[in-house]
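Course assignment 3, question 2. Fill in each field.
Student: A.L.
Task: Predict the tertiary structure for the chain below.
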Amino acid sequence: MEEIILRLSNFIAAKILKQPNRVISATEPLISSGLVDSFSLMDLSLFVEDTFGVRIEDTELNADTFDSLEQLAKLIMSRQ
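Answer field:
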């Protein structure tokens, strides 16, 4: 799970936030804090699908599923 979180964190920091040196903790709120907006959420979803080979349903693109790296990593692991 740590490897998944690290890859997600690196992607968000570099590609979405354009701050490659930013460290995002596993439990830091992504959506509810405004760190990741709805447009960036689509990019993150595509990254997850392409990188980890899992399908993310449109109905899952919300703060209940994607609000922390830990939540997202658990979802990925449950589908691999």
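Instructor remarks: The CA atoms of residues 30 and 55 lie 20 Å apart. The chain has one domain: 2-79.
Grade: pending
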